[in-house]
């Protein structure tokens, strides 16, 4: 960011263009304006950036390269100084960021749970034998099949609105969404059932919005400080360290959820086979500090990797490859 004394300076917030991404960027803008006397709605601009991931709705994403597809163009704009910061769902962020960029703040986490949506039944477990379930998430697919091996899973891609349209059009009898997304869109009443974390352990970092900046931009980092939630940062750090220890991409059915209990951080983490027949799960705890949280996630990841064995990963890669062709 340039000198804040220049009243003409416009602070630019980069984001994807989906309704959820825009709602999150607007929220960050409102919080920045509220936290700083010298900022008004007029000198903070939201810049919508179309990413490769947004363009290729017709192909199975994992074939084309995973999570980074939703962030590359935004990160390029950040590095080129076309924007000053970028707002993301932490869950969509790769575990390795380009040099010179960092996730500097995490907003207070929303509800991390998944919801089940259906036009025909009130609960996931009430789906009829052999019903069609729509999801593009390998995690949700594996967790659903673990409980209901009879279900047929079809790929449901696109933003929240697109997926709800597919459901309404009868392309599936049920689908899943993150509660946080629905809440932020003011659509919490659309959920059919909020799923217990015991059955549907959330994706690492689900429900937490983060802001990415250039590490050289001390002024921007300073402006964002009032938005930071330390508890969320500690929990998300453990979850992302676990993800990183197992898989940097989004090609693995992985789940993790951490939360503070007093001054302790409790982490629960899971690795599943694509069909849900194999589940490796561990819990752990540590002092509620960023460094300890990172160590805990890494340690649990290493232990689950050892339990699963290399053959598990070879078979998983094969199963995913067969699935997405
Ligand atoms: N992959 C898309 C995505 N990324 C973040 C959210 C929800 C909001 C959040 O987790 O913060 C969603 C939608 C969904 O999974 O239903």
Brief descriptors of the model:
D-Maltodextrin-Binding Protein, domain 2; Double Stranded RNA Binding Domain; 3 domains; transferase; binds the ligand NCc1[nH]cc(CCC(=O)O)c1CC(=O)O; 5-stranded mixed sheet; 36% helix; 11 helices; 22% strand
How would you describe the overall organization of this protein?
- The relative contact order is 0.14.
- Strand 11 and strand 12 form a beta hairpin.
- 36% of the residues lie in helices and 22% in strands.
- It starts with 10 loop residues before the first strand and ends with a helix.
- The model has no long low-confidence stretch (mean pLDDT 92).
- It folds into three domains: 7-107 and 208-228, D-Maltodextrin-Binding Protein, domain 2, CATH 3.40.190; 114-201, Periplasmic binding protein-like II (D-Maltodextrin-Binding Protein, domain 2), CATH 3.40.190; 229-325, Double Stranded RNA Binding Domain.
- By secondary structure, it is an alpha/beta fold.
- The longest helix has 19 residues, at 290-308.
- It contains eleven helices and 13 strands.
- The protein has a five-stranded mixed β-sheet with strand order 2-1-3-10-4, sandwiched between helices.
- It is globular and about 60 Å long.
- Helix 9 (230-246) runs parallel beside helix 10.
- The protein has helices at residues 19-35, 52-55, 61-64, 72-79, 138-147, 160-168, 179-184, 218-224, 230-246, 290-308, 310-324, and strands at 11-15, 44-48, 85-89, 101-106, 114-117, 132-134, 152-154, 174-178, 193-194, 209-214, 254-261, 264-272, 279-287.
- Bound molecules: ligand PBG.
- Residues 89, 91-92, 177-178, 180-181, 206-207 line the site of the ligand NCc1[nH]cc(CCC(=O)O)c1CC(=O)O.
């Amino acid at each position: 960011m340039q000198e804040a004394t220049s009243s003409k300076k416009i602070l630019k917030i980069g984001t994807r263009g989906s309704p959820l991404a825009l709602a999150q960027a607007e929220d960050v803008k409102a919080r920045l304006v509220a936290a700083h006397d010298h900022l008004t709605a007029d000198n903070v601009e939201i810049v919508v950036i179309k990413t490769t991931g947004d363009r290729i709705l017709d192909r199975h994403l994992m074939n084309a390269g995973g999570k980074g597809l939703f962030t590359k163009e935004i990160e390029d704009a950040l590095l080129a100084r076309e924007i000053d910061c970028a707002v993301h769902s932490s869950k969509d962020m790769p575990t390795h960021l380009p040099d010179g960029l960092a996730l500097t703040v995490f907003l207070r986490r929303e509800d991390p749970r998944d919801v089940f949506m259906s036009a025909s039944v009130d609960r996931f477990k009430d789906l009829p034998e052999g019903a069609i379930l729509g999801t593009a998430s390998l995690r949700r697919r594996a967790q659903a099949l673990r409980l209901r091996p009879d279900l047929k899973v079809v790929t449901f891609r696109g933003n929240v609105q697109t997926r709800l349209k597919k459901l309404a059009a009868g392309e599936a009898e049920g689908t899943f969404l993150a509660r946080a997304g629905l809440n932020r869109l003011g659509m919490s009443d659309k959920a059919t059932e909020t799923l217990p974390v015991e059955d549907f352990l959330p994706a690492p970092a689900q429900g937490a919005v983060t802001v990415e900046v250039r590490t050289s931009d001390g002024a921007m980092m300073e402006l964002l400080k009032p938005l930071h939630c330390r508890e969320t940062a500690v929990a998300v750090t453990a979850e992302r360290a676990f993800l990183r220890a197992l898989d940097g991409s989004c090609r693995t059915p992985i789940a993790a959820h951490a939360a503070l209990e007093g001054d302790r951080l409790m982490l629960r983490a899971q690795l599943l086979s694509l069909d849900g027949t194999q589940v490796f799960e561990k819990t752990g705890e540590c002092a509620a500090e960023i460094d300890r949280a990172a160590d805990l996630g890494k340690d649990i990841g290493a232990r689950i990797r050892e339990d699963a064995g290399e053959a598990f990963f070879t078979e998983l890669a094969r199963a995913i490859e067969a699935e997405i062709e």
